[in-house]
Amino acid sequence: MSIPSSFAATHGKWVGSSKLYLPDDPKRASPSQAEVAPVARGKFLTISYDWSFEGEPQSGVILLGL
């Protein structure tokens, strides 16, 4: 089974702003970017992203599959 076409249409590089909300703390915004790519013959989708928190670089990866 492959990922749905609605998800597959999102692949590419994205740029935006990340907003972090912490209890009793004002929201913090930072530039962010993400890359969405199909993997494993189109059966999964990865979302690799990065942003910063208090000047320190942060990153993460999400793996989506059915």
Count of extended strands:
4
Strand order of the largest sheet: 1-2-3-4
Which regions have little confidence, pLDDT < 50, spanning 5+ residues?
A: none
**Helicity range:** under 10%
State the secondary-structure class.
Answer: mainly beta
Question: How much β-strand is present in the residues?
Answer: over 45%
Mean pLDDT: 88
**N-C termini distance:** 7 Å
The helix-strand sequence is HEEEE
Task: Supply Rg.
Answer: 14 Å
Q: Major sheet: size, sense and barrel closure? A: 4 strands, antiparallel
What best-fitting shape do the alpha-carbon axes yield? Answer: elongated
Q: Count up the helices.
A: 1
Summarize the structure in words:
This protein is 6% helix and 70% strand. By secondary structure, it is mainly beta. Strand 2 and strand 3 form a beta hairpin. The protein contains one helix and four strands, in the order H-E-E-E-E. Strands 1-2-3-4 form a four-stranded antiparallel sheet, with no helix packed on it. The radius of gyration is 14 Å and the shape is elongated.
